[in-house]
Structure formats: C-alpha cells, structure tokens
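Q: Here's a chain of 331 amino acids. Please give me its 3D structure as tokens.
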Amino acid sequence: MIGIGIIGAGDFGAAHARAIPEAGGIRLVAASRGNANALQQFTAEHGGRGYADWRRLLDDKEVDAVLIASPHHLHAEMAIGAAKAGKHILLEKPMAPTVAACDAINAAVAKGGVKLMVAHLMHFALPCMAARQILEEGELGRPLAGSSWIIKLWMEHNRRDWHLRKATGGGMLLTAGIHAVDRLVWLMDDDVVSVSGMLGAKFHDQEADDSALLGLRFAGGGIGQVQSVGYRTGATTYAMDLVCERGTLRIDMDRGTMLGRETVWTELPGSFEPNWMHNALVREWSAMRDAIADDTPVPVDGIYARKIIAIVEAAFASNETRREHEIAGGR
C-alpha cells in the first residue's frame, strides 16, 4: 500500500482525498496546512496525521508520495523539497508559474530519481479520453484547427488573495484557463511554436488577469485559439471544437463528445459520465499508483507540463509587446 501525503489540505486537496480511497493500492497517511483549525477538520474527515509544516510531512516515513496542491508560487520549493526527500510527486497544475521554475523542478526530480506527474486533469476526463481515442484511430486524419474555452465564475468560494496577484502565480489563465490550453495542445498532439495573447482584468478589480484570448501556431501547421474568462456573473461553458482533415469533434465536459461527419453530429457512446471531475481524479491517482508500483513512465510528465507553461509565459509576453512571441526551442 502506497502512503500519500497531501501538501495543501484545502478545497482541492479534499477533492483528491475523496478520490484516493477509490483508486485502490494507495492510502492517505498525512496532510499539511498552515491553518491549524482547517487542518484538524481535514484530518478528522479524511484521516491521516496533520502537519502544520509541510517539511515535517516530508520526514514522515510512511509517506511514499505527495500531492502538492498549494498556491502556485510555492510549487517549485515544495516539489524540489519532495524530490530531495525521495518522495514521488503528483503536482497540481500549473506545474509552476514560470519556465525557469519548471526547469528547476525537473532537474531536482531527475537527481532524486522519483516520479513526477503533473495533474493535468483533462488527460483523465472521459470526454477528452474519448476524443483522443478517435484521433489515435486515424479515421479523422490530422487535427488542423482547434478552439478551446473555459468561461466560468471567477470569485468562487475558494478564491484567495494570492489568486489575484501576478507575483503569486494568480489569474484566471494559470488557475483555470490552463485546462483549456492543455486540452487543445494534448489533442492537437503537436508542439506550439508561437503564441499571441491578449489578457487583462475585465470584470474584477485585481492585478492578475481574469480574461485572456490566445492564438497558437503549431509546428505541423495547425492553428488554435484559447479563451479563458472568469466572469462576474453568467453561466459556465467548458467545451472545445476540433476540426480535422475528415471530420470534426466537439468536446463538452457536461455532455460528452460528439463526432461531426457529412453535416451531422452523432454522440460518441460512453463519452459522458456524471461527476466527471471526481472520476478523472480517481483515474489520475490510479495512473500515479501504477507508475510508482511498476516503475513505468507517468502519463503527464514534467517535460510536457513545462511546454504548457512556456505557452502561458509567451502569452504574457505577447500581451506586453502586442506581438506574436515564438517559444524558444520550438520542437
């Protein structure tokens, strides 16, 4: 049984804690959070020992792997500390706010000889998995153009001050819009070579963005766009269109996936499930368990996750210069 410690026992740490028992072969043994009362409530509900200091959690010999679900600007320090302590790591997205921080994490993981998986949840969500399978079968040909968006309430109950500041890795794009970026890049299955971006706080009085539009150029000639909006009031839309050589796909997290051929949409059987996010978390932990137990590669590694941050970083730079920005290194 693989022992799990949660660093960042907050709202989404609790979502992970609810998924862990269903994955099998893993168990929650410890959690950390600076707020003592909140930590006590967390361990009372989900079990495990509580640590006010995450560094003490890393000293716990029953902890084999950690989930890091802390504020974004703390990811690098915590992941590097976990790697040095010999703990495997499931690191919540974004991997880190900057490419330089991602590089430091990857270097520490390589030196420590531990597994690192970055928790890009779309890779384990049934509608996206169904679309990926269709694409891999090849009947639709290559995807050539894609549009991916997440439009949602920004000031949710779990919004914190650090979410509103640039220095702490806040903003809608890094917090939630990154799902739309990842989903597009993963399903296009190609490297992004340049990015144009327009970002700002359009609905709220804050330093970090609540709205962003990104244009992406892919190495193989494909093009894509991403819309990330955290509105003041509205209704959530969380979907994607992908136009391939011989058909189209529409992915809707709340309805499943549809295939478009000859002007007709048809539902892909088995592409929708209620409570998709919880089920995706269970799959994520199952994949992490298998990678640790069988010493196999993780499905979403630090090299891939670094590419997503490079896209976001280029979007920020493009917004400042009002020019398209190439991604260093390209393919």
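Q: Can you summarize the key feature?
A: Residues 119 and 207 are 26 Å apart (CA to CA).
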